[in-house]
Amino acid sequence: MTKVLEGKKGSFFLQNDTNKILDDITGLSLDVNNARSYSYLIRARKAFLESIGVKYYFLVAPNKECVLSDFLPAGVSLSDRRNVYSILGFLEESFFSNIVYPLDALKPKPFKPLTYPLEDTHWNSYGAYIAYRELMSLIGDDFDIKPVGEDDFVYYERDVVGDLKSKVCKDGFFKNISVRFKRENFSMETNGLTNLGGRVVTTNVDKELPTAIIFRDSFCSNMIPFLANTFSRCVFLHQPNIDYRIVEEEMPDIVISQQVERFLVRLPDDIGGASHSDNVLEKTKKMES
Known about the structure:
11 strands
């Protein structure tokens, strides 16, 4: 079965994926028990990390379907009975405020480019910057940090392959919005792995800035240059659960969890789940086999 749903005006969306995104956005797969457990997990992370002097923030990347809901095909209606809203509701009841779900900021605005391209699942660099700005607005309540401004970089278009368009078109290329910094203040090292097990470390020339670890998914890729220009050292680990061993090794000022909305249907295992080293070993074995 195809994993692509064709919407209006040449848009493409996910369907039949492992997270059953259409069931989520239409309210058919709301799992209140999972949402409650997820809220407990987020609160436990914050409590432990703050007990060792580390601030914790959670960024939810909205589903493209929720941002570009007007592009959905006839018969697909967005519901408020979504897992993300259930989680947010439980967190609000416990007065948890260190979470960002920038749906309204990312929705289409007059005379502005789209934050999510029609051909791909992920936000583009313009959308990533808006999400970064919303996150930094929250972090700015705790740290005196000057966020990256639009005067620091320029937008440009480059040809990329759309992860959705490529599944239905022989030529999956499209022009996506990217950024180029006028002055790049960081260096980058990577372990060369993509997706689960991937590790990127950035080092800023300004050593006085706070440090951060970001446990992330693929949506964070377009955010890396913004965060790297904001913190003195960033460790980006591609995994949903927190590896507390690395937190204790790095002892950063900030830990950020970033997950796309559709992944919230699965509760990460911070205690018994795979560590970063486990993920690297598993990925390496698969590459060698």
